[in-house]
Amino acid sequence: xxxxxxxxxxxxxxxxxxxxxxxxxxxxxxxxxxxxxxxxxxxxxxxxxxxxxxxxxxxxxxxxxxxxxxxxxxxxxxxxxxxxxxxxxxxxxxxxxxxxxxxxxxxxxxxxxxxxxxxxxxxxxxxxxxxxxxxxxxxxxxxxxxxxxxxxxxxxxxxxxxxxxxxxxxxxxxxxxxxxxxxxxxxxxxxxxxxxxxxxxxxxxxxxxxxxxxxxxxxxxxxxxxxxxxxxxxxxxxxxxxxxxxxxxxxxxxxxxxxxxxx
Amino acid sequence: xxxxxxxxxxxxxxxxxxxxxxxxxxxxxxxxxxxxxxxxxxxxxxxxxxxxxxxxxxxxxxxxxxxxxxxxxxxxxxxxxxxxxxxxxxxxxxxxxxxxxxxxxxxxxxxxxxxxxxxxxxxxxxxxxxxxxxxxxxxxxxxxxxxxxxxxxxxxxxxxxxxxxxxxxxxxxxxxxxxxxxxxxxxxxxxxxxxxxxxxxxxxxxxxxxxxxxxxxxxxxxxxxxxxxxxxxxxxxxxxxxxxxxxxxxxxxxxxxxxxxxxx
Lengths: 263, 264
Prior knowledge:
The complex is a heterodimer.
Chain A: H1 2-20, H2 22-46, H3 58-78, H4 84-90, H5 93-98, H6 104-111, H7 118-135, H8 141-171, H9 178-185, H10 198-207, H11 215-219, H12 230-233, H13 236-257
Helix pairs in contact in A: 2-3, 3-7, 3-8, 8-13
Chain B: H1 2-18, H2 21-45, E1 50-51, E2 54-55, H3 56-73, H4 77-87, H5 89-95, H6 100-130, H7 139-165, H8 174-187, H9 199-205, H10 215-221, H11 230-258
Helix pairs in contact in B: 1-6, 2-3, 2-6, 3-6, 3-10, 4-7, 6-7, 7-8, 7-10, 7-11
């Protein structure tokens, strides 16, 4: 209950700070959308040169991208802690957070909440609907619930991975360049993973499970392929819980080790 | 005076050196990155021998060279400048007896040198061991490429500086910086060579500076650009370097008048 009211207070705070810079808000919304648009352009360019990618058609790959945008939007809304190491460790703001009774990760996340990112989720949903009709997939009400479950699982995987990445800053005093680099790797989860060799495929499925935020859950709704990814699809929420728990453990352990580096 | 600027290069190099352990993970991640694109393109090629004038082999080399070039020219000058504007420390920099932007450029170069020696070179060796990359044997090509790579750094840093300076006008340019990063990766040709783009898009690209960052140097290095045209291609880079000085100068001039520090 206390956590819910905290959430509400932070959101009010966010609205106040944001309304101070109104134009800026819209620039961010616009740039977020363009950012997603760039990735779509890449897919469209690729399919000008080939009819299929490892057995996946253009509409299917775009569908996967649409699916990916939904959990990604939710994730970026609540987990925009890209500069955690810089702001909280190097500049020492973590000390302030730790003097308060609420869980440190919860506070850090709320301080950085970023609702405009949610617009990306809506665009993703629209893309999915368009591809759905184009591919002529059957629709049942049950699909909506499964979609919700899979999105939730994907968000948890993202959340767990980035919590773990941020927690690394507790162990190394230096700012790590890992987060921006990871940013590139996450893109590969959007393409049919069967085009990669065994090792990369293994990494993307089980080590940095970015395949579980795009192609694997999305395959549940698509036509079955020869090496059937959709068998793993329903495993997404389980994977989400596992990855998030690991991320949280690493964070909690890191906080205990944290000694303060800022001035 | 010049020696002071050179000190900025040296100091940044040494600062980066203190954090070098972080870059070992970076090399692995870049290798995975190159690998992922390698397989992606392999799948795109399928059974076809050439696409848009690139053979499969040329494509592999192009990807490896382009990503490793990115490891060199990439920097966060935009974020550094935006942060200094937002927290107000830029005002202190402005009263010091040096050119703020030139100092930033020097610091960026210090970082670039570091990235070249401890990131690009070892990364390239590892990548060549894993993937079927064919590097040119002609020393002249290497020499030209080095010069062009230096201009890649200059032009990319100029774009970063411009993006960073926008923090003077919009109080939070986080979204812009993110967008710029993707824009540069996509349109510079790291992710997809410009020859693959549909005609109209490739046409627009010819009038934008992004191709000068990766596509032009990588095309020369992989032998896609005939020797007779190398000078023209290099000329485009020089033109963009000079051309970009103008918007930077204009932005900087009006920015200094606009500076108001938020909570400084």
